[in-house]
Amino acid sequence: MSFLLRRLGFYLLAFWASITLNFLLPRLMPGDPVTRMLSRSQQRLEPQQVEALRTLMGVDGGPIIPEYFGYLGRVLTGDFGMSISRFPTPVSEVIASQLPWTLLLGLTSLIFAVILGNLLGILAAWRRGGFLDSVAPPLLVFIGSFPYFWLAMGALYIFGINMGVAPMRHAFSVGLVPGFNLEFILDVAAHLILPALTIVLVSLGGWMLGMRNTMIATNSEDYILMAEAKGLRPHRIMLNYAARNAMLPSVTSMGMSIGFIVGGALLTEVVFAYPGVGYQLLGAVQGLDYPLMQGMFLTITAAVLIANFLVDLVYVRLDPRVRKG
Predict the structure, then answer these.
(1) What's the mean per-residue pLDDT of the chain?
(2) Closest CA to 251 of 211, 218, 300
(3) What is the crossing angle of helices 91-126 and 277-286, to 10°?
(4) Is the pLDDT of residue 109 over 60?
(5) How far apart, in whole angstroms, are the C-alpha atoms of residue 30 and residue 23?
(6) Using one digit for the tens of pLDDT, what is the confidence trace for 292-315?
(7) Which pLDDT score is estimated for 60?
(8) How confident is the model over 234-260, as pLDDT tens digits?
(9) C-alpha to C-alpha distance for 91 and 105, rounded to whole angstroms
(10) Of 317, 325, 298, which is closest to residue 76 (Cα–Cα)?
(11) Which residue has the higher pLDDT, 182 or 289?
(12) Which residues, at least 6 apart from 312, have a Cβ–Cβ distance to it below 8 Å?
C-alpha cells in the first residue's frame, strides 16, 4: 500500500506539472493566440471584439496568479473553454466525440500486436534457431522500419484504390446512422481493418523481439532447469514458468503504449481521415485552435499517467518483489 501511495503521489505531482505547463505555454509565446489567429485569417475586428476573444481564450493579460487558479478550477471540472475552429462547441465535447474512435483504433491494434508479438516471441525463443526464430524477426523488423504513414498509404493504394476491397476513409459509411446494431458494427469493423493493420504490422516486430530476448534470458534461470528436472510438460514450463516471468517487461511496454494510444495514431488517422483525436489535433493546429490543442495535450498526458499507474498496480500483483521496494 505504501508503494502504491508513493506512486500515486508521484503521478498527481506529474499531472499538476502538466497542467501548469499547459497553462504557461500559450502565455510564454510571443504575442498571443488571438493576434496570431487574426493575422493569419486577415480579419479586421473591433478592439472590443478582440478583447472578448482574448477573455474567451484565457489570455486577456490579467493577473497571472488568479488566472492560474481559475484555470485549475476549470480543468478539474472538465471545462477547457470553447473551441475556436468549431465555435461555439466546448472543447470537452469535441474531445469526447473523437476519443472513442481513437481508443477503438488504438486498443484494437495494441491488443492484436501484443498477443501476436508475444506469442511469436515465446515460440521463437523456446525453439531457438528454428525456422520461426530465423525468419520472423528480421522480416518483422524490416516491415517495422517503415513509417506508419508510408505503410498506411501503401495499404490504401493497394487494397482501397486498386483492389477496392476495403473502405478508404472515415470510421463508417457516409449516410449510415450510428447505432448499436449488426449493420453498423460490421461497417465500423470494415473501416477499422486497414488502419489497424498498418499499426499492427509496424509494431509487431518490436513486441516479438522484446519477448524473444527476455524469454532467452529467462530460459537459462535455475528454476527453469528445476522444472525440467522435475519432469514437467514442456508447454507448462514454457507458459507457466518462463513466459509468465518474461512478460514483466512487456507489461511496462504495454502500459506506455496504452498511454500513447491517444495521440500515437495521428498520422494513420490523417491518412485514412479517421475521426480520432490525432486527426482532430491536426485540424486544431491548422486552425490555430489553442483551447482545443490545450485540451488534447492534457488528455494525452492524463492518458499516459493513468496507464502507467495501472501498470504499477499490475506489477504489484505479478512481481511480489516490487512490494518490498
Answers:
(1) 77
(2) 211
(3) 130
(4) yes
(5) 15
(6) 888 888 888 887 788 777 777 776
(7) 62
(8) 777 777 777 777 777 777 777 667 655
(9) 22
(10) 298
(11) 182
(12) 3, 4, 7
Position 99 scores a pLDDT of: 83
Q: Tell me the β-bridge partners of 82.
A: 90
Nearest to 22 by CA among 282, 266, 290: 290
pLDDT over 70 (residue 37): no
